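so my prof wants the structure for this chain in the tokens format not the other one, which i didnt know existed until like an hour ago. anyway here's the sequence
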Amino acid sequence: MERQTEFNNKINFKWRAELKKKQRDARLADQSISILLHNILPAHVVDIYLTSLARHELYYESYEMVAVMFATLKNFELNFPSLRVLNEIISEFDRILLYYKDDYSVEKIKIVGCTYMAACGLDIRLSSTVSGRQNAHESIAQEVLRARRSIMSFHRNNKLVKKRNEDIVFVLTAFALDLMRTLWVCNANYKNFSNDREMFSADIRIGISSGEVMAGVVGASQVHYDIWGNAVNMASRMDSTGVAGQIQVTDETASILHKCGIKCNYRGMTFVKGRGILPTFFVSIDENYNFQYINESWTTGHSSKSSSSSNELSYAE
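here's what i got, hopefully its the right format
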């Protein structure tokens, strides 16, 4: 009897040990899956997507206002030797993204060749672009709060109803400007290395648009989160018809930046594939990669060049 009891105890101990190991392995597997999904999909999509997948349902979202950016490296020959350099540049862009991702809902959508695609406003829980948390990067937070005050003042002075989340356009434009600053630093660093000096002397061309967007997860394997809509197409066109060293925006996007107090210089009537000839604008940036503001008193603490009123936002007749 005692031997039988001892045997049963040993068996139960072994089963309990195996059960704990399986439970521990399952938790590690769940954590690994969660980490992988959060690297593939936006954070707010992961749980909803898993629920939709279990129900065999298509996952999609619709947004009234999203800002979309395409940023393309120019004068950059994509080959095997330069792939390391491209990886380093994209990694630096991703580090900048960390400052914007959690607090300002900026998401990297994908990399296509030498083009970096990102969007701002893709969060169904987004009630305000600025989360109000104190861990936001201070300079970014100050710029965004300034833009929000400017938008509120514009609507109040013109007796207009403020549209929801217009400040996401400024957030994404600020992110685009940070990418330009980052590339300038990278260019300066690579000039110090003789092996990379000839390989890398890239510039960046950026296009931004805003408006309605549909988002969703596609694919049965190697799933991909992507966005579609006129705002996406127009942002791509603003990039492809743009100029290196400039951020080109649509008429509507320039109008929102104007409300934020940002100068936008009228480029002229530009042929846009699929849309015809449209007015486009360049975001006004000084030689130190700072925004030029309509009200120069806002530039306290920033080195921005003065420009005449003729360079402020204007619209083609």
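also thought this was worth mentioning. Residues 126-135, 296-317 have pLDDT under 50 and may be disordered.
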